[in-house]
């Protein structure tokens, strides 16, 4: 196990694109698997395969290229530069990635609400200010794991919004309580 931790950073430096894309896809897919576990239902591996396919064919590659483009266009970690990168990411990159996830699954209003409540503003602030360039796609994958868990869960449990997640857990909690005497 210890040797894996030495090999992985070398692979990321030598082959950054495939390493980051595979890590991103693995984390994004794990997010879907986790949300299925949280819902308590049987594992739907065909759904996880679809999420993995989307992550490896689009999301991971898009994030890799997009983050490199942003770094070239706005190099550095100065606060003003970081805020400019986050603004660009949230106004251009975010809608593209979120729309790709929801293609054919929901309507535009749900996508718009997802953008408003998306924690990626914070994730991208930390990504651009704290994470080295060669790890940014992998960090996005870690954040994508959290976000995919939420997106898949909310889409499977309701209308793809934060409200649907809360309603699911409130109903579950109510059904788990013993009946009053």
UniProtKB/TrEMBL annotation:
InterPro entries: Mpv17_PMP22. It is a multi-pass membrane protein. It holds the Pfam family Mpv17_PMP22. GO terms for biological process: mitochondrial ribosome assembly. It comes from the Eukaryota. GO terms for cellular component: membrane; mitochondrion. Keywords: Membrane, Transmembrane, Transmembrane helix. The keyword Membrane applies. Its main location: membrane. It is found in: Membrane. Belongs to the peroxisomal membrane protein PXMP2/4 family. This is Mpv17-like protein. It comes from Myodes glareolus.
């Amino acid at each position: 196990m210890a040797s894996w931790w030495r090999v992985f950073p070398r692979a990321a430096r030598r082959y950054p694109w495939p390493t980051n894309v595979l890590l991103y896809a693995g984390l994004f897919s794990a997010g879907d698997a986790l949300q299925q576990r949280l819902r308590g239902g049987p594992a739907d591996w065909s759904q996880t395969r679809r999420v993995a396919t989307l992550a490896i064919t689009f999301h991971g590659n898009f994030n890799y290229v997009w983050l490199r483009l942003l770094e070239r266009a706005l190099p550095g970690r100065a606060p003003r530069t970081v805020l400019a990168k986050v603004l660009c990411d949230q106004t251009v990159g975010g809608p593209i990635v979120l729309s790709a996830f929801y293609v054919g699954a929901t309507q535009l209003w749900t996508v718009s609400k997802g953008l408003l409540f998306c924690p990626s503003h914070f994730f991208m602030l930390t990504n651009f200010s704290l994470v080295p360039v060669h790890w940014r796609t992998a960090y996005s994958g870690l954040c994508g794991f959290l976000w995919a868990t939420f997106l898949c869960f909310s889409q499977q449990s309701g209308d793809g919004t934060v409200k649907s997640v809360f309603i699911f857990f409130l109903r579950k909690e109510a059904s788990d309580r013993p009946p009053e005497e």
